[in-house]
Amino acid sequence: MEWEKIAEKLRDMIIGEIKEEFKEFRASVTGELSGFRIALEALIARQNSMENEIKELRKAIDETNKRIDELRIELKTEIMKNTERIDETNKRIDDTNKRIDDTNKRIDDTNQRIDELYLISSHIRTDLNKALSEKKVIDDMLTRIQRLEEKVAI
């Protein structure tokens, strides 16, 4: 029986030591877990903050994309208007070029007619000069005939 008492005391001592070590281990683990809990709470708070920022960024991106689409539509409309204006201007330029070509043709025709009239007037001038010189000769002859008639009549 004594061995039993000794064994029981020994067992109680070992169990007491184990309980004490377990308490210390438990306190240590509890402290470490508390530190982990604080770190996890900080990480969760940071993750929540990041998620909120991501949501705000997505919202801003969606608004930006919407505005880009609106601007794209406005730009397409303006481009179409400008294209129409350019087409109208090109048509007016083509019409003006056609009128210029017609005017140049008329000028060429007029220049050709002027050249023809110049040649005709040159011929007329030559004929006129010839006629004037013949008239002088005729006038001179008439004057001589008149003098001769006057001399004969005396």
How would you describe the overall organization of this protein?
The protein has 154 residues and is mainly α. 99% of the residues lie in helices and 0% in strands. It contains one helix and no strands. The N and C termini lie far apart (216 Å). The mean pLDDT is 91.
What's the gist of this structure?
Helix content is 99%, strand content 0%. It is an all-alpha fold and 154 residues long.
What is the radius of gyration computed over CA atoms, rounded to a whole number of angstroms?
63 Å
How many beta-strand runs?
0
Coarse structural class? mainly alpha
Mean pLDDT: 91
Helix content: over 70%
* Biggest beta sheet attributes: none
Distance between the termini: 216 Å
